[in-house]
Amino acid sequence: MKFQNFWKESRIFAFCLISASVGAVIGSGLWAERAPALAPVAAASTAAVTPGSIETSFAPVVEKALPAVVNISSSKATKVSADGIQGMPQMDPFFRQFFGEEFGRDFGGRGRGRGSIMPRKQYEHSLGSGVVVRSDGYILTNNHVIDGANEITVTFDNKREMKAKLVGTDAKTDIAVLKVDATNLPTIAMADSSKARVGDLVLAMGSPFGLKQTVTMGIVSARGRTGLGIEDYEDFIQTDASINPGNSGGALLNTHGELIGINTAILANNGGNQGVGFAVPANLARSVMTQVMEHGKVVRGYLGLLPQDITPAMAQALHSKQTEGVLIGDVTAGAPAAAAGLQRGDVILDLNGQKVEDSNQLRMRVSMTPPGTTVQLRVLHDGSEKTVAVKLAEMPANVGGSVEKSEEGGGAASALEGVSVEASKSGRGVVVTDVDQGSPAGMAGLREGDTILEVNRASVSSVADFDKAMRNVSNGATLLLVKRGDNTFYVAVQK
């Protein structure tokens, strides 16, 4: 009986045990179906990221580079008028209407005499980032981070603060060089930024919104970005790595931890990052730094001509089947280009054996070539190719001029749709007095105040000449030689 009871109890216990086991298995299977799989955490690799591969961690690259990315704070003092109280905000108009101007003067004039109104100093502060590129204390940043600063402070990742001296700046590229009195500082090596490719992974480092030692990741979205109106000389690397206010002057690195750019600007409507950021290429920053350290400023090469991109409409007006090269819209008298025999209407095909793709590329390459250097230009002149040797001069400090303004209400409708003109006071060409911005001429870039000197390479000297020339134009693009200020250039207008 005891044995039967024991056997009965044993069977019940075994059944419960088996049921629990089966339930655990089923439960674990259901959990596995609904829960994300957990992969084992891989150990961080100490090697640089291999091109074409995706690493699970950039920690080794970041740990090595981040100590060389610094926070830069600058301040400058400006004098503002004090309306009664020095060192305090001006009296609120609400109180002024009850207590009058004398209250503010009496209350704020202690120690300065009754009614004394003294100017007061107001300090403007700026925050940005910088990159240590030499162990003896040389730092790259943006010009706009330290522009006009009376005092510059550099803070390292170990919270060490040092006063920095401004070595020099170049506002045309927005690059500045600083120096701190230190040795054996951590640095970031500068890469050949021309080898950066669209699609390469990049890391942006800096202090956005004052948040020090911040790292974001993205890719190179585009190269050679120009025409943004941010700087005079633009050749930006575009990236979608998050760049925000405070990142200016910080590092854009490749996956080897090398500097390929100095973060400079963002394209945003609300002041924040929208995935479109721009960095000055390391090659350009290096060139600027070298010249600033050697000369105290950037000395640029100068050709003395106005280069223009050849648009399809312009190629049609020139009776050309290609848009390669750069059209010379104007040649400055006495400049190296004029001395070498280059003429308006010539097309520059290459410089020192390298093709010239657009006007910005030509400007950048010439500007970064030292004055006194002789360059070889392959030029298309009246349908024939020739090679011209030009010795570059130093770029003058100021280039430009005023625009001839028409009389109020002057001019009459011309044979060019949407454009009114009048005779030029100089006797050369006609002056544009009005342009319909929706007309073909307005869309091509013609402006009020421009002087039209030629129509399809033929000179015009009066309104009648201009109208006759325009009426003789067949359907297609019309090439106008336009003078704006001290420069001339070509405009192609579709008819």
Question: What would your notes on this structure say?
Answer:
- It contains 10 helices and 28 strands.
- It is α+β, with helices and mostly antiparallel strands and 495 residues long.
- The chain has a 7-stranded antiparallel beta sheet. Strands 22, 23, 24, 25, 26, 27 and 28 form a 7-stranded antiparallel beta sheet that branches. It has a 6-stranded antiparallel barrel with strand order 8-9-10-13-12-11.
- It is elongated, with a radius of gyration of 34 Å.
- The model is unreliable at 1-8, 22-46, 84-101, 106-116 and 400-410 (pLDDT under 50).
- CA-based shape: elongated
Any guess at the CATH architecture of the largest domain? Beta Barrel
Q: Which strand order spans the largest sheet, edge to edge or round the barrel? A: 5-4-1-2-3-7-6
Could you estimate the helical fraction of the residues in percent?
Answer: 10-25%
Please count the beta strands (DSSP E, at least 2 residues each): 28
Spans where pLDDT lies below 50 across 5 or more residues: 1-8, 22-46, 84-101, 106-116, 400-410
Distance between the termini: 115 Å
Helix tally equals: 10
Computed over alpha carbons, the radius of gyration is 34 Å
Structural class: alpha+beta
The percentage of residues in β strands lies in: 25-35%
What's the pLDDT, averaged over the residues? 79
CATH class of the largest domain: Mainly Beta
Major sheet details: 7 strands, antiparallel
CATH topology of the largest domain: Thrombin, subunit H
Count of the domains = 4
